[in-house]
Structures are given as structure tokens and as C-alpha cells.
Amino acid sequence: MNPKTSYPTTPVDLWSAWNAWVGNLLAGNRMPLSGDVKQWIEAWGEVVGQVGLFNVNFANSANPSAERAIVSKYSYGRQLGRILDVLEPLVEANKSLTDPKELKEFENMVKEIRNRKAPRLSPVEVVDAVRAWRDHSPETYRQDLDILLAQLGELRTAVDRGAQ
What we know:
Among the domains are: 55-117, no CATH class; 123-161. The relative contact order is 0.03. It contains seven helices and no strands. Helix 4 crosses helix 5. The radius of gyration is 36 Å and the shape is elongated. The N and C termini lie far apart (95 Å). The protein is mostly helical and 164 residues long. Helices cover 62% and strands 0% of the residues.
């Protein structure tokens, strides 16, 4: 036994020693109900991910009920389309007032939106539609097919040249 080691002799000393030992043992950890508890509580959408095909967050809206009513009648895509329908001719007529870089970005955005909204058939759907011509008008099928192939050839030539 080391003669310099002091042992607690009173209940207060014993309690102080115990607290020091537990404090060193737990160093920075909190016992239940012993202090500030910080916990991230996730919102339902963060926990389960996407709930529907489209999820719209109205939490940041100044008037969520009005926003819900508007979006139920006019989707964001429909709103954007109508805005672009009005804005595009105004921008076109006033090109000199617009920064060329911003103008190009706007034109690219409009073009991309229009392309995405345009009805698109897959090559398989096109071939199926052409095959259906044979059943509806066998007498003109070969003539219609020749016209289609000529037009497709013209499109291919334009694409090969870089034009669209």
C-alpha cells in the first residue's frame, strides 16, 4: 500500500470520490434525464422517402392551402408552360435589352422544356403504327411507306449534317 494515497474517511469524502470516479468513467456521456438531450427527429417524408408519384412540399409556402388549390388545378408544368408562352415572344422582341449569355440560357431552357413536353413515340411504336397502315389501307400502304422512308432519309441526312 502506498503511504501517500489517501482514502475517504467520511461519507462526504466517499461521495466526492464516487462522483469523481463516475465522472471520469462517463466523461462527456449523459445519464438519462441528466441534462440537455439533442436528437434529430426526421420528418415523415425523410423517413419513408417519396410517398407518391409527385410530392409537393407546401411547408415553405406563405399560404399552403392556396398553393394546394392552385396546384390541384394548374400543375407546375402547366404554369411554367403558360408563362413561357407569354414570355418567349417578349424576350424574342427585346433581344437587344437582354444579356447575350442569359438570353442563350433562356432559349436553351425553353427548347429543352418544349422537347420534353413534345409527344414522343419510340421506334417500336412507330413501326407498329406503320404496320397498322397495312391493315387499314392495303392499297396505299406501299406508297405511304415509300413516302415515310424518303422523309426519314431526309431527317437522317439533316442530322448527319448537324442540322435539326
